[in-house]
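Record type: monomer structure entry
Structure origin: computed from sequence
Chain ID: A
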Amino acid sequence: MKEFITYIVQQIVSHPEAIEVEEVTEEGVFVYTISAAKEDMGTLIGKEGRNIKSIRNMAKAKAIKDDIRISVNIKEDDQI
């Protein structure tokens, strides 16, 4: 799943080499946190959050197929 999310995000940003996806398991839920270059944050989030919402939907569709629970988040500036 980590590779899947990384691949999707790298396709839409200007600096794909700066993309990092952390995977942590909390209470049976896989939590994926995406960090990107500051210049790419707007693209990653998208207008009214549409891009990140689409990324989450694709990841959740794959998670349902794999029978796992996931959460996809973006690492904010103060967390970097």
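Annotation 1: The mean pLDDT is 94.
Annotation 2: Residues 2-79 form a domain with the GMP Synthetase; Chain A, domain 3 fold (CATH 3.30.300.20).
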